[in-house]
């Protein structure tokens, strides 16, 4: 091996912002290809599944015939956006036109500032002159910041050349000045006026992408406006993508969203859109080609300077099985949520243990994997806490109830006994079944399904493997996710259980 394992620093970061190997070791998941080739525009997946990695890969495209604009919302002034609600329309449509306007302004910025192919014909030249005048007159700059779009001081300046009938206001011989506060009343007309010119100006030989990520920041499941905003964005992206396609333009407005948030949204034609426009990021799913092993082999190959084919076996000693006759890969993936983030974190933890052992051997041994379990388990518990705290008010108490269990596997009766014993941890209106149902939604626990029951042969059904599964309150047995064993201080089996070798298994 060109470089010893003990000499490398890591296999990359656990999120796209800190992952120094992302660009060189990017795995071209089907969801990336769907988005990049404009086959799908709604990319969903669990936190850490790779949404932001795809976002950044498209955003950083080096191709000369691709222009991209990415929106993230760490400090976006939602209170200004929320004033753009259009009244008198179905709730699911109240934000469509404000999102369309924002997307169109983003496309205008690309055309006016960055697309060197413009104007690609005489019609585009005429359109672009009007678009640039509108942007400069309205925002004082041809490259306005996203935070300016709905600022209260903004005044739309509609030139007569747009020929738009703006509700009660009709463009005349001189420009019409409209406060941004009045935009909701005339948004469809404004969007129609500018979209005709902006979409018409897109060069049919150029790919254009407008990307939306980090939409879960500030998520509050009790905030109705949050859900309506997301529905509006999804529908606005759909409408503009269809308009561009019908015009022969290569545009994809892409929305990246956590799958648990998408499942909470309810709107007309959701199923139709799910079937035609959604691409889900999954790893190690039955019948699908993308595996975390392939993802790690790219990274191992890069840091060890070896061929990607078989790189996993270069780093991991798979000749010696783990307990239960498992390969190291299966032992590790069983303790993840099948996300790149988890696999990279676990591999980095194994590397740290290996280095502490003074680089014992030239491959990761069973002892290295076992030694990394506690640190990784603590990480996974903290990751889950970050996901569930907005959804489950008493999530810490729910985790404490799991700590009271003897082992990872338990029956409903056993959990009910724990709840009776620690009723100080039970919130009013919550019983054992309600608590387990909440934890099931985030794959903290799974239920036993004899014979697989259509869930891909899985003995214990977890949402991260079976997104469409519903909690079964009448299952014979339940199991806490294996990755949480060390963090919650649970044994692998009950005292009465036997391991595969016939020995009692306590840890």
Notes on the protein architecture:
There is one protein chain. By secondary structure, the chain is of the alpha/beta class. It has 18 helices and 13 strands. A hairpin with a 2-residue loop joins strand 4 and strand 5 (169-170). Helix 4 (96-113) runs parallel beside helix 6, helix 4 crosses helix 7 and helix 5 packs antiparallel against helix 6 (183-201). The protein is globular. The protein starts with 29 loop residues before the first helix and ends in a 19-residue tail after the last helix. 40% of the residues are buried. Residues 497-507 have low confidence and may be disordered.
Any key phrases for this structure?
507 residues, alpha/beta, five-stranded parallel beta sheet, four-stranded antiparallel beta sheet, 13 strands, disordered C terminus
């Amino acid at each position: 091996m060109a470089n010893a394992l003990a000499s490398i620093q890591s296999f990359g970061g656990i999120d796209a912002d800190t992952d120094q190997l992302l660009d060189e070791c990017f795995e071209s998941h089907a969801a990336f290809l769907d988005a990049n080739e404009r086959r799908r525009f709604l990319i969903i997946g669990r936190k850490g599944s790779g949404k932001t990695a795809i976002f950044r890969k498209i955003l950083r495209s080096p191709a000369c015939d691709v222009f991209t604009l990415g929106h993230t919302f760490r400090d976006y002034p939602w209170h200004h956006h929320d004033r753009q609600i259009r009244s008198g329309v179905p709730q699911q449509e109240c934000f469509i036109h404000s999102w369309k306007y924002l997307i169109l302004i983003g496309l205008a910025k690309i055309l006016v500032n960055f697309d060197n192919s413009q104007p690609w014909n005489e019609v585009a030249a005429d359109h672009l002159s009007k678009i640039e005048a509108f942007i400069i007159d309205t925002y004082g700059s041809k490259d306005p910041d996203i935070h300016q779009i709905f600022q209260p001081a903004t005044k739309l300046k509609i030139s007569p050349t747009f020929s738009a009938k703006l509700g009660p206001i009709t463009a005349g011989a001189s420009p019409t000045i409209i406060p941004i506060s009045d935009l909701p009343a005339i948004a469809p007309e404004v969007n129609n006026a500018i979209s005709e010119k902006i979409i018409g100006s897109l060069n049919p030989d150029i790919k254009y992408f407008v990307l939306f990520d980090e939409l879960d920041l500030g998520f509050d499941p009790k905030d109705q406006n949050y859900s309506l905003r997301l529905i509006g964005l999804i529908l606005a992206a759909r409408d503009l993508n269809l308009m561009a396609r019908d015009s022969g333009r290569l545009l994809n407005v892409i929305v990246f969203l956590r799958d648990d948030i998408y499942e909470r949204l309810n709107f007309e034609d959701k199923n139709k859109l799910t079937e035609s426009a959604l691409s889900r990021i999954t790893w190690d799913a039955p019948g699908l080609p993308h595996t975390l092993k392939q993802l790690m082999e790219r990274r191992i190959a890069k840091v060890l300077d070896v061929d990607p084919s078989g790189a996993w076996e270069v780093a991991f000693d798979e000749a010696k099985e783990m307990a239960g006759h498992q390969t190291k890969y299966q032992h590790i993936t069983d303790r993840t949520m099948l996300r790149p983030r988890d696999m990279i974190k676990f591999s980095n933890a194994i590397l740290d243990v290996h280095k502490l052992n003074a680089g014992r051997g030239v491959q990761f041994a069973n002892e290295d994997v076992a030694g990394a379990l506690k640190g990784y388990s603590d990480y996974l518990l903290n990751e889950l806490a970050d996901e569930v705290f907005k959804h489950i008010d008493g999530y810490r108490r729910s985790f404490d109830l799991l700590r009271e269990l003897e082992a990872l596997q338990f029956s409903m009766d056993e959990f009910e006994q724990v709840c009776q014993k620690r009723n100080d941890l039970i919130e009013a209106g919550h019983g054992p079944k309600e608590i387990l149902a909440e934890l099931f939604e985030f794959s903290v626990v799974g239920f036993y399904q004899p014979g697989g029951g259509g869930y891909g042969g899985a003995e214990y059904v977890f949402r991260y493997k079976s997104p469409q599964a519903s909690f079964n309150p009448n299952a014979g047995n339940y199991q806490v996710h294996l990755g949480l064993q060390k963090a919650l201080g649970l044994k692998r089996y009950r005292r009465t259980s036997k391991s595969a070798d016939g020995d009692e298994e306590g840890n």
